[in-house]
Amino acid sequence: MSSLAQEERRSISENVKWGVRKKYEEGTYRIPYGNLMGYTRAEDGGLKIVEEEAETVRLIFRMFLNGSTYTAIKNHLESHGIKTKFGRDKWDRNVIKQMLMNEKYKGDLILQKIYTPDFITKKQVKNKGAIPSYYVTNPHQGIISAEDFDKVQKMIAERKYRYGKERLGCNTPFPFSHRVQCATCKSWYTRSVATRYTKKKVPGWICWKNKYDSGQRCPSHRVPEAVLEQEFVNALNELLEDKQSILDEWADKFDQTYNTEKLQAKADRIQARMEKIAEKAEKLIEANPSYFNEAYTELLEEYEKLEKDHAKLAARIRDTEYEGDRMRNYLELLQKLDHVDDFDGDLVRAMVDKVMVYKNRSLEFYFVGKRRINRRPEQK
Ligand SMILES: [Zn+2]
Questions:
Q1: Ligand 1: centre distance to CA 319 (Å)
Q2: Quick one: average pLDDT of 221-250?
Q3: Would you list the domain boundaries of the chain?
Q4: How many helices (DSSP H) and strands (DSSP E) are in the chain?
Q5: Is beta strand 180-182 parallel, antiparallel or unpaired with respect to 352-357?
Q6: Does domain 18-170 correspond to CATH entry 3.90.1750.20?
Q7: Which pTM does this prediction carry?
Q8: 3-state SS class at 206
Q9: Do residues 207 and 184 touch, judged by C-beta distance below 8 A?
């Protein structure tokens, strides 16, 4: 390509971008705000905070940061008579989750979610992505600080890591919550204070299907909390005897395991392709508005597919970064510790993914990085 042609292409691209920005400034791009709790449209077409609603947004983020589940937040809002954006009494867990992930709350915003091709028709068309999304930092006032927002994104990634996609469990005050699993039926163990057979109050852990499911009661046994705690200390000390080999192993493979550069480069390539398609779409409309329904739709579909791929990659990058942070923290603890005498719940949270309880009463501790230690508590 001649440099003149290149120059021409570059200038077309610049013009398209400039045009898009200008339309945004003129308020011809409709940012969907109708269902966004905490904001209303300002005179200039941007977003303006509605203080009463913003309070609800802050409450939801605060509760989540304090470890509440989506369901607990939903129940709290409903029992306190706090209404949704549309004035409804019932809240949806997914709406709460989407709010927690909405980047608009930290003052950022993706432009052009809805695009008005006003040179063709006045009818508003939802922009399914044919126009590139320019990520703009701070075009309006945030409700949540960037630090809190980022912390929440990490916590969402953590829940996904620990419970899988479908398990939206909670951070309870007990380090063994959602960590102790029944090998017989795969349910989680839950805390119970009284035993079924004696009146003594001895805190312990029991399979959820043993405790609550009277139809098909799981035949697993109850583990006294003191035994779990003691066996964790024993398992950790066993692990620490071998700590140098773990540290050496991870010194070699940490970078290649948790490096996100390749994923990031892939995401950037997809982003670049999306922008190319968007430019093509714009040129198509400007050159001949009648193409709008044919070739344009094709480009739109391609763009949508790329957008989905991009979102998947972004989630993978976040998850990998979370797992890397957790591994780094785990290795630092290994480095620091030599022998542990007393139980410490924070060590369980930082170092143990789960504890499997087997029929033969043995406990298997799954440490971060898949290292397992099996313990057989002494019978009393
Ligand atoms: Zn069970």
A1: 29
A2: 96
A3: 18-170, 172-380
A4: 11, 13
A5: parallel
A6: yes
A7: 0.58
A8: strand
A9: yes
